[in-house]
Amino acid sequence: MKNTPLKLTPSSLAFGIAVALAVFANAAWAGKDGREAIILDDESRAFVVQEMQQFVNGLRQALIALSQDDMKSVSAAVRPLGMQGMSSAPPNLMSSVPEGFRQIGMPIHMAFDKIADAAETGATTKEILTSLGAAMDRCVACHAAYRIVSR
Q: Which helix (H) or strand (E) holds 149?
């Protein structure tokens, strides 16, 4: 039988990320992992969870656009993930999360703005993919270190 290499498509990558996020967010795992619990009120928790969902969807859209060499759509996909996304954050969110979470989270918003700028100003697909990979390193680091729980 011939070994066929696994083809990673933007859709399969996005699906894999979504599954990983779902597993990390599953409360049944909470007692079994060593991640630091971030205890948030319902409004802040809903904001953070929605923001993570937007990240996954925006990354999926950006990957699809990259596969079509459509830099305008790449920018449109990641721009809302930048600092403008923080404008609707609950007022007490930043004081409710540990410093390490802020040190991971704020730079990822700035990274998405830089990626959108790069896509608009002639960056190559490879440059954008490299930048998206670096941004996703922050996602992975955050999910490895923290879990969000309700009060």
A: strand 146-150
- Domains of the chain, first to last: 34-150 (1.20.120)
Q: Evaluate the CA torsion angle 38, 42, 45, 49 in order and state its sign.
A: positive
CA distances, 122 to each of 64, 90, 106, 109 (Å)? 18, 35, 25, 21
- 10-36 pLDDT, tens digit each: 655 555 565 555 555 555 555 577 999
Instruction: Enter the pTM of the model.
Output: 0.77
Identify the CA nearest to 104 among candidates 149, 51, 61, 66. Answer: 51
- Name residue, tokens 């989270």: 105
- From residue 120, give the alpha-carbon distance in Å to each of 11, 62, 63, 77, 128: 23, 13, 15, 12, 11
Tens of pLDDT, residue by residue over 74-117, are 999 999 999 998 889 999 999 999 999 999 999 999 999 999 99
